[in-house]
Specification:
Layout lengths: L16 E6 L3 H12 L4 E7 L2 H11 L3 E4 L8 H12 L10 E6 L4 H9 L4 E4 L4 H12 L4 E2 L1 H14 L2 H11 L4 H11 L4 H8 L3 H14 L5 H10 L6
Parallel strand pairs: 1-2, 1-3, 3-4, 4-5, 5-6
Helix pairs in contact: 2-3, 4-6, 7-11, 8-10, 8-11, 9-10
């Protein structure tokens, strides 16, 4: 069995984070393999040319992180992400679900929200610098949200603008299930803070923060920290 990451996920036998690349352009996959292959602690274990192939590859390879394009034949990246996060690719008992980072040239507000609501752990643009891309994969493997700065701002703007009354009521009801301390942590997650930053700000240990985050994800019916942040924004608490 692989080693456990600090967020509960598994890594390869050598401790490396296992990565699958999904893009219908072979040249893009080759470039990503070159970039990530040189990243410390990263191992590209497989590639896929569309969403359907990605489901099979992920089920077989059980990677820690998937870099997913959006517009692909047969099955697009958003639907593939939704199926992966929903459990279409099983993993061993006790291990974390695969974390999907959407990597695309398209950054419309609707597309960002659709990808993140599908369960993507991050959204990056293909012009992301190589060092930032490596850091993003490492962060996703550690359970941290991964968004390009421009994308993060668009997300906040879009959620604030488009939050429907029903969505806000549901979000407020979910937030109401949290304890006072969990609410504080949830608000920090909504601001995009890492576990270490939350621990420092709220005078808690990192393991305690991780415990709170795990409970928050369950109570907010969120697949990951990004979805929890969306609930916080939907509830109108982002600026508090």
């Amino acid at each position: 069995m692989g080693a456990m990451s600090d967020s509960g996920g598994t890594t390869g036998h050598d401790g490396a984070t296992r990565v699958v690349l999904v893009d219908d352009d072979p040249l893009v996959r080759s470039g990503l393999r070159l970039i990530l292959g040189g990243g410390p602690g990263l191992e590209v274990v497989a590639e896929a040319g569309d969403g359907l192939e990605a489901l099979d590859v992920v089920a077989r390879e059980r990677p820690d992180v998937v870099l997913m394009d959006i517009r692909m034949p047969r099955l697009d990246g958003i639907e593939a992400t939704r199926r992966l996060v929903a459990g279409g690719a099983s993993r061993p008992a006790g291990s974390a679900a695969v974390r999907v980072i959407v990597l695309t040239t398209f950054d419309t507000d609707d597309m960002i929200l659709e990808a993140l609501r599908a369960g993507a752990a991050g959204f990056l643009l293909k012009d992301t610098p190589p060092d930032r891309l490596v850091a993003a994969v490492q962060a996703a493997a550690a359970g941290e949200p991964t968004l390009s700065p421009r994308v993060a701002q668009q997300l906040i703007t879009a959620v604030t603008r488009d939050s429907a009354p029903d969505g806000k009521r549901r979000a407020v009801a979910l937030i109401a299930t949290l304890t006072d301390r969990e609410r504080e942590v949830a608000l920090a997650v909504g601001r995009g803070l890492s576990n270490a930053e939350i621990a420092a700000e709220l005078f808690m240990s990192v393991p305690t923060v991780k415990t709170h985050v795990s409970r928050i994800l369950t109570k907010l019916d969120a697949a990951n920290r990004v979805q929890a942040a969306i609930v916080v924004h939907d509830a109108g608490l982002a600026a508090t």
